[in-house]
Amino acid sequence: MYNKFIFLNLFTMDYSFQEEELVELLDDVAAVDVKDLIVYNDDYNTFDHVINILMKVCKHSPEQAEQCTLIVHYKGKCAVKKGTFLELKPMRTSITDAGIDAAII
């Protein structure tokens, strides 16, 4: 709802502002957009490895990391964290550096 309000006001406002201000405003709107960090199943990472990485990177409890790992195994993927793209990007990098396939959607 917040993002829609900004976009509606953006198009109804007076266009007397500078282009730089518009770019900053659009960057702020993009930073507020909530995304999902998705972890995908594979055939070579162990349950323990994925659980440990989720606890380390996403700050999951052992139970939460285990549940996410089971969902990844049986469903093929799991949204392990929600946040802005800027918050999730370093987490995705750490997860993929550990050999686990992940994406921000």
Question: Could you explain how this protein is built, in words?
Answer:
This protein is an alpha+beta fold. The protein has 2 domains: 2-32; 34-104, Ribosomal protein L7/L12, C-terminal domain/Adaptor protein ClpS (Ribosomal Protein L30, Chain: A, 2-Layer Sandwich). It has helices at 2-12, 19-32, 47-58, 62-75, 85-97, and strands at residues 34-40, 77-84, 102-104. The protein has a 3-stranded antiparallel beta sheet. It starts with a helix and ends with a strand. Residues 1-8 have low confidence and may be disordered.
Features:
105 residues, alpha+beta, Ribosomal Protein L30, Chain: A, 2 domains, three-stranded antiparallel beta sheet, 5 helices, 61% helix, elongated, disordered N terminus
